[in-house]
Specification:
The chain has 19 helices and 16 strands. The chain is an alpha/beta fold. The structure holds adenosine-5'-triphosphate. Residues 134-363 form the Sigma-54 factor interaction domain. The modification 4-aspartylphosphate is found at residue 46.
Amino acid sequence: MLLVDDDPASLRVATVAVATAGGEVVAALAPSAAGVDRRADVVVIDVPHPRALALVERFVAAGVTVVATSGAGSVGLAVEAMRRGAVDFVLKPFTPETFARRLAPRFAERPAARDALPRPVADADTSPSGFGGFVGGSEAMKAVYDQIARIAPSKAPVFVTGESGAGKELCAEALHARSPRARGPFVALNCGAIPRELMESEIFGHVRGAFTGATEDRAGAAEAAAGGTLFLDEIGEMELALQAKLLRFLQTGEFRRVGDTRARRADIRIVCATHRDPFAEVAAGRFRQDLFYRLHVLPIRLPPLRERGEDVIRLAESFLARFAAEEGRAFARFAPDVLERFRAYGWPGNVRELQNVVRRSVVLDDGETVTLDMLPPELAAPRGASAPFAATEAAIEPFHVQERRIIESAIAAFGGNLARAAAALEISPSTIYRKRERWIADGDAA
Ligand SMILES: Nc1ncnc2c1ncn2[C@@H]1O[C@H](COP(=O)(O)OP(=O)(O)OP(=O)(O)O)[C@@H](O)[C@H]1O
């Protein structure tokens, strides 16, 4: 495998991922140094902007399998890369594990890589500690693994529910990896992070002139996912009018790009997810009942982390081993009182929050043991002591200070993802953007 990326840190992560997936890196280069090289079977090319797509085309023309990556989270770029022949598009930042999972199908025919392929379905019942990309062997999660294994081979839509950070996207990836479509694309779209007026075009594409700024024809996520899986995260954020179009697509297999008269077809499997209660959304009229019953064919409920017993410890230990290796730190264990706090804490941000707590200690501190003082305040202090409503007059802080702390801790809990933080706080993402801009303007950048 050949790696082409400007960023040395990304090259390091990708190198670990290739090895994890059972491959071998023949060279890791900056784009300026990368001529078309046929020594590699597969090339991973970073595409920071549309101009970089020319390199994708050159490798594709030379018969090399191309996987595109980018930190620019535009579906348009992903679609364009695939239109030019890339077999997959992976959004940065990625961890070695998540990237390895996406690369594994590329080694499917190579005997040396067999171990890196998704395990046979039968493992779902027997593995004590995990499944696919999941860590955890609690009874609640074993039931989920079992469901994924049974549901994966079907083409019917899957409806995943669960709190933010509980692993809904991981679940969609596991379904894809174990389906007959595993070698096709996996395209993830977060409906909560896309402005409403652009959502239809992101899903179904548009033709030139369809709206201001539509300067050329563009395929959408449905076309990019053809032959594979389309993951629609936060489906509850979709407008009713677009829900009707999605329903029609599910009923007929046909859709139209925005502004187009021509109907197109795409063979995709839809996995959708929401952190809301879908039945309540239907009852409140925010989610079309007919669409809900079309999508709710195969439901999976991911339990919140606080319902998974000792999984919280298994996950914490696996994150500690991973982040310590990535950051070159000596951390090897948690102090007993830290483990107690982990067990007692409610984990409103679920696995993502735990991941961030562990990463934070590894990055900010040093030593072999993670101790209580290395944890963020909401965990380090006994429950209630860090509540935002102080009990004594002297301890009361101005509202804007408390508000900022709440928003920043939510953003941290969601790994810097403003849209997800906003959804969890039940405020609009633009409110967070506006407030952040004000903090920056006040010379106090977050
Ligand atoms: N059981 C697990 N084992 C290992 N990692 C996990 C597990 N569950 C979740 N993760 C990791 O936690 C992070 C959050 O998971 P994911 O993005 O799948 O959650 P989500 O439910 O889709 O969140 P949101 O609702 O905010 O979109 C990811 O980095 C994922 O890889």
